[in-house]
Amino acid sequence: MAVAQMRLTRRALGALGSSELGFLRSSWPLKGSVRCKCLTRATINQKVLEAEYAVRGRLPTRAAAIQKELANGAKYPFTELVHCNIGNPQQVGQIPLSFNREVLALLTAPRLLEKAADLVKLGLISAEAAERAKEYSQKAAKIGAYTDSVGFQFVREEVCDFIERRDGNRPDVSQVFLTNGASEGVRLVMSALAATHLGGRVGIMAPIPQYPLYSALSTLMDCELVGYYLDEDNRWAVSIPALEAAHEEATKRGVVVRGLVVINPGNPSGNNLTPETLEKVVTFAHDKGLVLLADEVYQENILTTHPFKSMSSIVNEKQLDLEVASFHSLSKGFLGECGVRGGYCIFENFDPQVMEQFVKLKSIELCSNTVGQLSVGLMVRPPSADAAALYDEERQAVLDSLRNKAQILQKTLSALPGISLQEIGGAMYAFPQIKLPKAAIEAAEAQGIAPDEFYCMQALETTGLVVVPGSGFRQVEGTFHFRTTFLPTLEKMQRAMASFAKFHTDFMQRYA
C-alpha cells in the first residue's frame, strides 16, 4: 500500500474523492511521503469553481499568451494588441488628471508637503493642490493608519455635499460608506440579501446582458440571478413587462426575489435610461418590495441628449419608502483611476438595525484604502481656484475623446453587413449583435465553444483586437454579441476598426 501511495502523482491525488483522500491522509507516514493537499479542485468550495467572470476569461488569457509570443519575436498579422475587453482607461493611454495626482503626491510624501510652497513657486504644482493637500493632511492625520471602518468622515461629508448639488437632497453622513471601488459595496449589499432561511432560494434581479460581477456574486452566495432582458431594439431600454415576466417566473418556481439591480448608464449595453423609464423602474421596485441596487459608476459618461438622473433623486421626488443602495467609483467617468480602488455606497431608507449590521460587515474588512478614500473626496469636490481651468480642460479632453471614439466605433460597425449596433448612449462600451452564418456556428460547436467566442477568438488572432464574447454577459438565446470598449487612443481605435472591418468581411465570406 505504501509503495502505491508513493507512486501517486499530484494530478491523480486531485482527482480522488473525499473518502479516498481521508483514508490516504490517515494511512500515510509523515516523512518520505507525498503529502496530499488539503485544498484541491475536489475539496474547494464548489461555488468558487462555478463562478465565472468573462471579462477576464479565455479571450484575455489567449491575448496574454499572444503578447508574450510577440515579445519573443513571433509573427502575427499585427504588431501589438488593442485591448478593448475591459474598462481600464489608464492601461490603454488615458492620462491621470493633474490636480488629483498632485494632491495625492503631497499626501503620500509628507516631506514634499513640507516643501509645497517651493513646489508652487517652481510651477510644479498648483497652489490649490498644495492647499487641498494641507487641508486633507490635517483632517486625515496619518494616511498609513486605519480609518473608521466606513471611511474618513470629512470625505463622507463631501460625498453628501456632492449628492446635494447633484440631486437637491442631502443624505445623512451615516448612510455613506467609502469602499474599495463600487464592487465592494455591491458585495456588501448582496451578502446581506442572500439569506437562506426565507423558505426558498433567494433571487436578485439583474439586467441581461449583465455585468458578470452580479452573476459571479450570486453563484458564490448561493442565490439566483433572476435576469430581465433589456430591449435591444429600443436602445437597450428597461421595460416593465420584462421586469414583471422575470419576477413572476422566478416567484412561481419558489424563488424569493429580494433585490433589483439597475446599471445606468449600462454595462455592457452602453445605454442611458430616460427619466421616464427610471420612474417606472422605481415604482416597480417599490410595489414588489425589493431593495434597489443602483449601479451608477458611469454617470459622468453620457452621450445622449438627456442627462444622467440618479435613482435616489426619483425615490426622493416621489417620497417613496424604498430601500436604495447607490454605488459610484473612481474607476470610470473621466478619472479612470481603476487601480486606486476608491468608491462609495449610499444606503437610504434601510432599517436602523440593518444599518448596524452593514457597519459590522464593513468593519470585518476594516476600512477601505486611505488613498482611495481621499481620491473620492477629490472626485466629488473638484478644484475651484487656480487649478480649475486646467482640471476642466483635462476633463473635457477625456470626455470629448470618448465621444469621438464612440462615433468611430458606431460608424464602422454599423456599416458592416451582419452587425447591428444600437446607438451608444453612455458608459464606455458597445454591445453589437452579430448575425453569424450557420457554417460558423457549426464550426464553433464542433470545437465545443460558444459561437460568439469562436468569432472573437478569430478576431483576436487576426487583428489583435481584444473583446469579450456576449455569452459571458448572457444574451437572448439564439443571438450573438460581443462587448467592446472605445478606450484606446484615437489612433489605435482607427487602426483597430480598419483591421476589424476587413476581418469581419473575410469571416462572413468564408463561412457564408
Automatic annotation (TrEMBL):
A GO BP entry: L-alanine catabolic process
GO molecular-function terms, A-Z: L-alanine:2-oxoglutarate aminotransferase activity; pyridoxal phosphate binding
Domain of life: Eukaryota
Aminotransferase class I/classII large domain location: 127-498
Keyword Transferase set for record: yes
Keyword terms: Aminotransferase, Pyridoxal phosphate, Transferase
CDD domains the record matches: AAT_like (cd00609)
Cofactor(s) essential for the protein: pyridoxal 5'-phosphate
Quaternary structure and interacting proteins, as annotated: Homodimer.
Record-stated family: Belongs to the class-I pyridoxal-phosphate-dependent aminotransferase family. Alanine aminotransferase subfamily.
Full protein name: Gpt protein
Organism: Symbiodinium natans
